[in-house]
Automatic annotation (TrEMBL):
Gene Ontology molecular function terms on file: exonuclease activity; ligase activity; RNA endonuclease activity
Keyword Nuclease among record annotations: yes
Name of protein: Putative exonuclease, DNA ligase-associated
Keywords attached to this entry: Exonuclease, Hydrolase, Ligase, Nuclease, Plasmid
InterPro entries according to UniProt: MBL, RibonucZ/Hydroxyglut_hydro, Xnuc_lig_assoc
Species: Phaeobacter porticola
Record bears the keyword Hydrolase: yes
């Protein structure tokens, strides 16, 4: 009878990403590979050009929307779990964006959960986070410093609505990434009682349409075009991708209040660098308290940290008698939050 694999034998980093030799697949590889499992549709985790891709049905749809129908050779949708070359892989909601999942690799002796990106706060635009029990937890650490404790999403949305009410002669331009953040801001606005039209940049349209198809209530969305004149946008809320704010697009609107929805808006210097008048601290990643709470609740024997503030989290684990190490993976961006 063969000895159980060490965790490092079941899953370990290679230049292309985290690799499972027994199953001969990668998780969120940063370059094209023959067999890939994808946690979610953001471009730093989901790339085109793979052979076979396993992912949630929604993530596969999102990749097709972003990259075209031929983004890979073969798509295999996974609802809950599947077997690949004798390795059981389970897909558990990550609470990050629509379709996002943690992927647990289990050979019968050891279970390793790769979180991808995850969040544990109110997000009406995707399924909520669920704990995925494991022996080894592979976690991000985007906001892996004690200083990052984000306010409640509802409080930030109410801050936006108070500003709109106080400045009816101006419009509010909200920078929000096209996948996940834009739809979450819109859905939170609807939950808060904003029943007026919300105007969106054309780059957000297709992914917003897909969220609506998937049952996410985004209400009345309209194109953010100024064919009716600037005055039509007074007192209105307009969403666009952050890239559009560096172009002439933002200058089309009446005295815009520039807003940006991101966990990084807790860092005032970043808000100033972007010329943000109204920072909205809305993150789709765990902050320090939720990050450490997740580890405590999972109680894994080991923690591997993939990207972000690796050293601080490794040190916290050591102080709490949890074995931990940084993986030093490259190719995952921290800005898209």
């Amino acid at each position: 009878m063969s000895a159980p694999r060490l965790p490092e034998e079941l899953l370990h980093p290679q230049p292309a990403g985290l690799y499972c030799p027994a199953g001969d697949f990668y998780i969120d590889p940063v370059r094209p590979v023959a067999r890939a499992m994808i946690t979610h549709g953001h471009a730093d985790h989901a790339r085109a050009g793979h052979g076979t891709v396993w992912a949630s049905p929604q993530t596969l749809d999102i990749m097709a929307i972003r990259y075209g129908e031929s983004f890979c050779d073969t798509r295999i949708p996974v609802q809950d779990s599947t077997m690949v070359s004798g390795i059981k892989t389970c897909f558990t909601p990550a609470g990050h964006v629509l379709g996002s999942c943690q992927i647990t690799v289990d050979d019968g002796d050891t279970a390793i959960t790769v979180s991808g990106d995850y969040a544990r706060v109110d997000n009406p635009a995707c399924a909520p986070f669920q704990l995925a029990p494991c022996d080894v937890f592979v976690t991000e650490a985007t906001f892996g410093l004690p200083v990052f404790n984000h306010p409640s999403p509802r409080a930030e949305i109410n801050k936006l609505l108070r500003s709109v009410a106080a400045q009816p002669e101006r419009c509010h331009l909200v920078g929000a990434y096209a996948l996940g953040k834009a739809q979450r801001v819109i859905a939170l606005l609807r939950q808060a009682g904003w029943d007026q039209p919300i105007y969106i940049h054309g780059a957000l349209q297709r992914l917003c349409d897909y969220h609506i198809e998937q049952g996410v209530d985004l209400g009345d969305l309209r194109p953010a075009t100024t064919k009716d004149g600037k005055a039509a946008f007074k007192g209105q809320i307009i969403l666009g991708p952050p890239s559009a704010f560096a172009a002439t697009w933002a200058q089309r609107f009446p005295e815009p209040v520039i807003c940006f929805a991101s966990g990084w808006m807790q860092v005032r210097a970043r808000a100033r660098q972007r010329g943000v008048e109204l920072p909205l601290i809305l993150s789709d990643h765990v902050d320090w308290s939720d990050l450490t709470r997740t580890i405590q609740e999972l109680a894994p024997t080991q923690v591997w940290v993939t990207h972000g503030r690796e050293d601080a989290l490794v040190r916290w684990c050591e102080l709490n008698q949890i074995a931990a190490r940084p993986l030093r993976l490259v190719g995952y961006e921290e800005e898209a939050d």
